[in-house]
Fold these 2 entries.
Entry 1:
Amino acid sequence: MCIPAGIVLLVRGMAAKEADGRDKHALFEQWALPHKDYIYTACLYLTRNKEEAEDLFQETYLRAFRFFHQFAPGTNCRAWLLTIMHNVFKNRYPQYLRAARTLEFDEAAREYEKKLLADGEAGRDDPAEMLLSRLVDSEIADALRSLPEEYRSTLLLVDIEEMTYEEAAAALECPVGTIRSRLSRARRLLQAALATYARERGLVKEDVPSVLPAKAGTRL
Amino acid sequence: MNCAAYQDLVAAHVDGVLGPAERQEVEQHLTSCASCQRLFAEESRFHAAFAARRLIVSLPVEVEQRLRLALAAESTPIPSRPWRERLLALLWQPRWAFGLAATALMIVLLLPRLFPAAPEPAWFTQALDSYHAATEGRWSFTYHTADPQELEAAFNRSGQLDFVTHVLDLRPTGYRIAGGQVVREKDHPVAVVLYQGEDGPIVCIRQRGTTPPMPPGSEGVKGKYLYTRAGYTVSCVQSAEHFCTLITRLPREIFMRRLALAPAS
C-alpha cells in the first residue's frame, strides 16, 4: 500500500524542523553563551542594581534565543547580544534614561574637565592611572555607574565590552561621530569621578570638586 | 582644527581609529598645541591603565542555571513537539473525521481480501481446544494432586499413555497444579495438566511424536520455540519421545520471564 506523497513531504518537513530545533540549541550554546559574563557585566553597569541586572540579562538572552535565526554565524555575537540588551534596557527601564542626567554632575564635571583640559592640573600629581591602581574594582564600577547614561553606555560598550565604534554606534543607534565625542568626554568624566572617589577615601590631597551625584546608586 | 574639535576626537586618536586625513589634521594641530599634546599623553596613559583592569564580572551560577532552564523551556512548546504527535494532531480534526472513518472501514474490509490470513496450524487449534476445555471446567480432572511428582507417577502408572511423560514443577514461578487428565485426541493419547497462578491459567499438553514445524512468526529453533497468535502464547519443546506444548494468555515477555524461573526439566 503506498503512502500519499503529500503525507511523506509533510512528515519530512516536520522532522527537519525538529532537527533544526536541536541544532538551534547547540549553535546558541556555541555562539551566544560564551559571552555571558560580558553581557552580565553590561547589565550590571547599566541598571546599577543586581536584581534588575539579572532580569535584564535573562530577558536579553531569551530574546536573543528567539531571534537567533537573525544572527549570522561568524559575525560579532557579543555586539549582537549587546544591541539586543540595549533595546531591552531602553524599553524596560526608561526611568534610567530620564534620571541619568543630573545637573550637579554636569556642573562639577565641567569644572574638573576645565582644569584637566587647561593644563592637566587636576591630575598632575596623581595621574588618573595612579588612581586606578589605588581603587578596587567595585569603586571603579561605582564611579562608572555614576556617569550619565549616554556616557556610561558608550564607555561600557567600547572600553569594557570591546566593541568597535561602528558596532557601538549601531547598538546605541547614533552616528559614529557621536560615539567618538561621547567616548572622549566619557573618559574624562570617568577620571573626574575616580578622582572624587580617591579624594573621599583620602587617597589624594588636591581639592578636586566632587563630581558624583548625591546618590551614587547601589554597589555591587 | 581647534582645541574643542580635538577634545571630541581625542578618544579616537588614542584608540588609533582616525582616518588618514583626520590623523594628519590632528597631528598638525598637536605640533602647535602643547595643551592638546598633554591631553593626548594623559588620555593615552589613562586608557592603557583602564584597559588593563579587567572589570568583567562573572555571571553567578544560579543566574546561569535559571537561564538554562528558561532556554530548555523555550524548546518545549507546540512547534517542537515530536513530528509524529504533530501529524496526529493535524489529522485528528473533526473535518477529517468522516474521511478517516471511511478510509479505516475500507482498509478493514479490503485487507482480508488483499492479504488473506494464513490458516491456523492444526496443532495450534488442537492446543487451543484443550486449553479451553481445561480452563472452562469442561473436564472433570481424573487427577487432583498438587504435587508434580505424584501426578507424573500417576500418569505413567495409568497405562493410558504411549510414552513416558514428565510433569513440570511450576511452583517456583507461582503456578500450582489444579488437575491432570489423559484425553484421547483422534487416535493418540494426550496428557493435559492445568496450572493456576495469579495471572491466569497455563495448560501443558504432552503427546508422542515430534514438534510440529515452526509456523511463520515464531521465535526460537526447531524443537524449541515460542509462537504467539490471537492473544495466546504457546511454547513447543521436544522431549525424548514426545513433545510438550504450553499454552497461556500471558504476554510473550511475561511468559518467558516466568518460565525462566522454572527449574530445567
Entry 2:
Amino acid sequence: MCLGIPGELVELPDDETDLALVTVSGVRRKVNIGLLRDEEELVVGDWILIHVGFALAKIDEQEAAAALRVLHELGPAYDQELQDFATTDVG
Amino acid sequence: MRFVDEFRDPETARHLAREIAGLCEPGRRYAFMEVCGGHTHTIYKHGLEDHLPENVRLVHGPGCPVCVLPMGRVDDAIAIAEHDDVIMTAFGDMMRVPGGNGSFFDAKAAGADIRMVYSPLDALKIARTNPDKRVVFMAIGFETTAPSTAMTVLRAQAEGLENFAVFANHVTIIPAIKAILDSPDLRLDGFLGPGHVSTVIGCRPYEFIARDHRKPLVTAGFEPLDILQSVHWLMRQLAEGRCEVENQYSRVVPWNGNRRALEVIGRVMELRPWFEWRGLGFISHSAMALRPEFAAFDAERIYDVPGVRVADPKACQCGEVLKGVLEPWECKVFGTACTPETPIGTCMVSSEGACAAYYNFGRFSRSRVREATLLADPVVRR
Ligand code: SF4
C-alpha cells in the first residue's frame, strides 16, 4: 500500500472524472490523476508514480525504471500489489 | 537505463562507504533513524548495514502504517464489518493484522463480507454496484494515502452515493517523529526522511527538527545508493557542524509538497485530539478523522464502534522495535512464536514492517551468514 507503482500514461481523461489509462509492466488500468492537475502538464507517454490508484508525482523514465526495480525486489509483496492493481477496477 | 546501473554501481557504493567512514569522529557512535518502512526494507534487503562502519547504526522507525494500528481499531473495524448490510473493503496489507479478536481474515472466514481492494476508488465502484449494501473503506496510511481517501470521499459526494463510508485511521508523520524526539530512551543523531510521504507534505514540515531539536534530516529515495548517499549527507552535516533539512530525493519530492493533495486532505479531514499508536501509546493531534460536514460518509458516526482499548499481547515488543530501542531479533518471540505466517505483532505483518523485513532478509545479513548476502546481491559484493 505504501509502494509507489510507476505507470506510463496511455490515454488522458476526456471528462471530469480525472481517470486516465496507464500501463504498468504491461498491465492496463485506470488511475486518478486529479492530484497532479495543478502541478504538472501531463501528456501521453509521461511517467507517473501511483499510490493506491492515484498519481502522486510525475517522474522521468529513469526514475520509473528504478522504482520498478525496487518493487521487483519486494518479490511476493509486489506480486500481490500488482495483482490487486490488475484485477480490481474503478469503472 | 544507465542511471539505474549507476545506482547499482558497487564502485559508487564502496566510495560512499569510504567517505562515510572518513567522516566518523574517533570514539563517537552515530545512530540515524529511517522513519519509513520502505527504507527499512531496502536496508535489510541489501544488507546496507554491512556497508557502514561499525559505529554507524541505522535505527528503524514507526513509518509503516499497518504496524502502528492499535488492536482496538482492528476490533472496531471488524465490529462494523459484522453488520449484515456492510461490505468492508481494505488493502491487502490489512488482512492479517491481528486485533484483540483475530484479524480481517478470521472475520471473513467467520462470515463477514470483507473484500480486498487496491484503491479506495475500487471500494467506490463496489458501492455503485451494490446499492442495497453499505460499502465501508478501511482507510489506513500516512499522508501518502490520505489524499486518495479524501479524493474518494469528494467523488462519492459529487455522485450523490449514499452507501459509501470511510473508517478513517489516517495518521500523520510529524507528531510521531516529535514523540520519538521526546522519548527519553533514545539517542539519535539524525533522520532519513520518508520518501513518499514527503511527496505530499514536502520538506518544510521537518524544519523544526533541525531548528528546535538540532538534528539533521535528509529526505531519501528508496534505492540502496540513495540511502548510502543520504547517510553520507547526514554525516557531512555533522562533521561540518551544520543542522539542516536536505532533500536527496528531489527528483521526486518537491520542497513544498503537493499543494492539491494537502488542500483536499484539509477540505475533507481534520486532526483528532489524540490517537492511539500501537506500541507508542496515545499521541496528540497525530491522526485524522472526517470533518463533520462529511458525517454521512463517516463509518465512525454511522455505526456505534466499541472503541475498546486492547492491550498489546504480553509477549509483544513492537513498541520498543517501533521506537528503535530494540532490534527486531531482540524481541523474545521473534522468529519463534511470531513469524510472517503467524504474526503476534504488527511489525511482522507488512513487508515494510521492521520485523518482517528482517525476518525475510536481515537474518542473512550482518556478521551472521555474511557470505549469503555477498552472493545474493552485487551491491554488497566486495
Ligand atoms: S517479533 Fe513480533 S511481537 Fe516481537 S516486535 Fe516483532 S512483530 Fe512485535
